[in-house]
Amino acid sequence: MEPIFRPAPQERLASIDFYARVAAVVLLVAGCFLVLRPFITAMLFAGVVCATTWPVYKELRHRVGNRSSTAAFLMVLALVLLIVVPLALLATSFAGNVAALAEGVHQWFATGIPGPPGWITGIPFVGEQISEQWLAISSSPDEMRAIGRRMLEPARKALLALGAVLGQGVIEMLIVVFVGFFFYRDGEAIMHSVRSGAERVAGHLSGDLLRQVQGTVISVVYGILGTALAQGAVATIGFLIAGVPAALTLGFATFLLSLVPVGPPLVWGGAAIWLYYQGSLGWAIFMVLWGALVVSSIDNFLKPLLISRGSKMSLLLVALGVFGGLLAFGFIGIFLGPALLATGVSVAQYWVRRTAESGTDTASG
Predict the structure, then answer these.
(1) What's the whole-model pTM score?
(2) Which of 5, 53, 200, 327 is most buried, taking the most CB atoms under 10 A from its CB?
């Protein structure tokens, strides 16, 4: 029995042509993705950097006679001097001192540590137990060496991993600078293309959506970087007052670790321990108080203040964005993770609000 409907030859050819075009487009998109995949993270972060510093670029371009290439070069030169060079110096110094630090810790455990200070016993509930345990460890060389062996290898691996992250960050930041030059120079044409694509997807609502996303991303990045800069500057002042060596390097390390929750105490806490074992108990106490009451407290009020100016994103999402971004994208993910989450939250809030408004209009109609 013959089929009731049989497509005409022209229709079959048209169908084959359609599927062939779709397959060609899919293969082209897949090929482009494979080519750009190593650079997608850097491109996204370059977009975030350019979006947040665009007003500075426009003012600079105006001052150099509207020469886009010159202004873009000056902007990326500033990024190199302010971020890439200090990060490279920190990574180099860190990598060079890991072996010396490990050897110093090994010798410290081998020679023994001093007995517990008297104020330890004054700690409520746990002071006496801590003091007894400390005294038992410090008076037993074998116990000290065993603890040193257990702690040294994991600590060395952690330090090497941190050094690798810093080194990876230097390479990624160089790619960001390279891509950022073209984003600055051709930014207006790129944004025109983005708006055109958004209009095809969201129609007349695309303008409001892009403005909300841009405002959210900028406020989150400003909040993270502004807080980190403030904590790094205040920590540097404390290191200088207490006479801690390499205060500027430690201040920059505080800036970097401020991007990660509970990061600054690793720096000022280490400085306080160093001061204590140098015999400067008063300066060690000062460092602890300065770090806890001044450096770390900045995060509690400045970051929410800066972020809330353009976004309602919670600090929990910011923290998850930092850790998740670090695990997913490496060093750049510290900045990129919160920005991506901020974009997602902004789009979701916008969609919910527009849906509610549409429902209200329908009900009133």
Answers:
(1) 0.62
(2) 53
